[in-house]
Amino acid sequence: MSEKRILLIIGGGIAAFKALLLIRLLAKRGIKTSAIITKAGEEFVTPLSVGGLSGEKVYTDLFSLSDEQEMGHIELSRSSDLVVVVPATADLMAKAARGLANDLASTTLLATDKRVLYAPAMNVRMWEHPATKRNMDILRENHALFVGPVEGDMACGEFGFGRMAEPEVITDAIEKILAGETNIDALQPKPLKGKHVLITAGPTREPIDPVRYLSNHSSGKQGYAIAKACQRLGAKVTLVSGPVAIAPPQNVNMVQVETARDMLAACENALPADVFISVAAVADWRAREAHDRKIKKDQQKLQPLALTENPDILHTLANGKNRPGLVIGFAAETDHVLKHAQAKLIKKNCDLIVANDVSIGAVGGDVMGGDNNKVIVVSKGGADAWPLMSKIAVAEKLAKKIVEILV
Ligand code: C5P
Question: Is 230 annotated as catalytic?
Fold first, then answer.
């Protein structure tokens, strides 16, 4: 293998000192390191210590005339095989996701034609914030790679996700990428490999006539996030979705449906599955008769809309002969959330119910359609109230819970 070189961007976080160990570990494996330190990064490590370990010039300033004459900021990333951001702070990831370029690090991230590996490190609340999750999604779409973060103690005294991957793990990841591993998620563990996860999401749409329908405010965000989280952990995912305005997730088997009856048929068709997660807000009723011509106003006055009950997809699958080993229902409630969730767990024969309060005012009144969720996870063994999180963070935590149960 010819000599490999990475461009290390050191962000401003308490984990920056670990970048020094990373440089040493890389050197031991014959990988050279050029480094850029952000202004905030310089509060944690000095160019002298970084340069001392890498044996190379360290870059800090975008508008340095001497640096530009020696090696322009465009050239800096071009002459490396991989760009690695350690620690990847929330700020650096936000800049890279949005294409900001107001210092050497962000300009390089925008100008590079190389893959970028991020090792995120931040406080758990910052990690779980919807803004960070959105930025991660954008970076992933732009083919960025991620290593970590992991769960653990943090410098701020809290415990949770956001702790940077250890330098040894980052070194292994770098070596794999340099050896040609291009699968974006291949660096993360795949505990759900070989499992089929069936998920419903979004609303259903029940026709009244060719122009009108019955439906609800479900956006599909929570179900789609769960589909992505399970897929990332290696599961084969089938996502049966009602009409939503979200792009289909990559590497997920999508089945688009309109009505509850179509959704049930699509789910039954997708069986067998190891896990069924019923996130969809299925319309409980449909018009008894879907007219094939538009109903006139006066016609409706004479004959009010008659409704009939839709099939309960969750109940049907949870009690069918092909019952998935793990069945998870969702319960959107406006009152007595826990009590109703416990009753639903038994009534629908589920293993878990993820209950949330969708009353106006709960989570700022924006659960349905919004980016955040506050849930109680109810099983026969008890109830676990999770803090307010982004829907993406709820999805990741639920996917991890599924791993704990199954594996
Ligand atoms: O009874 P309720 O509608 O509150 O139950 C919610 C749970 O049941 C959700 O998991 C939802 O996806 C599922 N459900 C279903 N089919 C229906 C109604 C609800 O699968 N017709």
Answer: no
Which two tokens mark 158? 């809290």
Q: Which ligand 1 atom is the nearest neighbour of the CA of 330?
A: 10
Name the helix (H) or strand (E) containing 193: none
Residue nearest to atom 6 of ligand 1 (CA): 331
Q: CATH number of the domain at 5-178, out of 3.90.1150.10, 3.40.50.1950, 3.90.1200.10, 3.20.20.20?
A: 3.40.50.1950
Q: What pTM was estimated for this model as a whole?
A: 0.71
Query: Model confidence over 268-313: pLDDT tens digits?
Result: 999 999 999 999 999 999 999 999 999 888 776 667 889 999 999 9
Domain-wise residue ranges, the chain: 5-178, 196-406
Q: How many angstroms is it from 137 CA to the middle of ligand 1?
A: 29
CA of 356 to the centre of ligand 1 (A): 13
Residues of the chain above pLDDT 70, percent: 92
Name residues whose C-beta falls within 8 Å of residue 31's C-beta, 6 or more positions apart in sequence. 4, 5, 6, 174, 175, 178
Domain topology for 196-406:
Rossmann fold (3.40.50)
The answer to which of 62-66, 250-254, 300-304, 310-314 has the lowest mean pLDDT is 62-66
Under 8 Å between Cβ of 339 and 288: no
